[in-house]
Design brief:
The chain has 247 residues and is mostly helical. It is built from nine helices and five strands. Strand 3 and strand 4 form a beta hairpin. Helix 5 runs antiparallel to helix 6.
């Protein structure tokens, strides 16, 4: 019985290895070649369609041929940690961000940008409740789970023509992705100070706005410190749009 089980596992491993990489792996000898080819095309086409639907701008950036080669490389190199098809896009992004070499230097960031829209749309989280007006500089704050500040070296929010294959410009592009009350995901550009402020509120909730201002000023050695008036205006606008709220 153990020998039969070992034989089955070996055959199964050989079969799945060939499905991933038919050009280099050896197919199990006892299986019909035509059926093997059919299974291989079904697996590849399913993964190709699922991933391609999530990353249309990445497909356009690379072109179909290079994109198909990338998906094949993903099948060969990556081992998923989840059985859920809805998590496939996130797995693909994590794989891209860990790859030492990609067919375009902006690809991992562009894929992450496209994934954020899918992830925020599917996120099981509630918006911040509306409250009576308050002064955010003197109130403990928290950031909405539906508002994500983002930093990219490449202008992934602009037309693909701006993603030329050259070193990424500096400083990073700061964006805010957020889901509105109707379930739609929007992106907006942020100033660097505003983005770092929202990151700090998300990572360290419960401080008053004036405390976040002090932390922001201390962390920006090369830039002029923001004024309380400017930060107060920014925080009140963020409260109005339910990007942040009272703890």
């Amino acid at each position: 019985m153990p020998e039969h089980r070992d034989s089955f596992h070996a055959s199964q491993s050989a079969f799945t290895a060939w499905l991933r990489d038919p050009d280099h792996a050896t197919a199990p000898a006892h299986l019909d070649d035509a059926r093997l080819r059919l299974f291989e095309r079904m697996v590849f086409n399913d993964i190709h369609a699922l991933v391609g639907d999530c990353f249309p701008r990445c497909v356009a950036l690379l072109g179909l041929h290079r994109w198909q080669r990338l998906v094949r490389r993903y099948l060969v190199e990556h081992r998923c940690t989840t059985p859920l098809f809805t998590e496939l896009a996130g797995e693909f992004v994590r794989w891209l961000r860990a790859c030492p070499a990609l067919p375009h230097p902006a690809l991992a960031e562009l894929a992450h940008f496209e994934w954020v829209e899918v992830a925020l749309h599917q996120l099981d989280a509630a918006a911040l409740p509306g409250t009576a007006p308050f002064d955010p500089l003197h109130t403990p704050l928290r950031r909405s789970p539906l508002a994500w500040p983002l930093f990219y070296r490449w202008p992934v929010h602009l037309h693909a023509a701006r993603l030329e294959a050259r070193p990424a410009p500096a400083p990073p592009h700061a964006l805010l992705a957020r889901r509105d009350a109707h379930g739609h995901v929007h992106f907006m550009s942020l100033g660097s100070q505003a983005a770092h402020l929202l990151v700090d509120i998300g990572q360290h909730p419960g401080l008053r706005g004036s405390q976040y201002l002090q932390r922001l000023s201390a962390g920006m050695a090369d830039d002029p410190p923001p004024s309380p008036e400017d930060v107060g205006t920014l925080l009140r606008q963020a409260v109005h749009e339910r990007i942040i709220g009272r703890c």
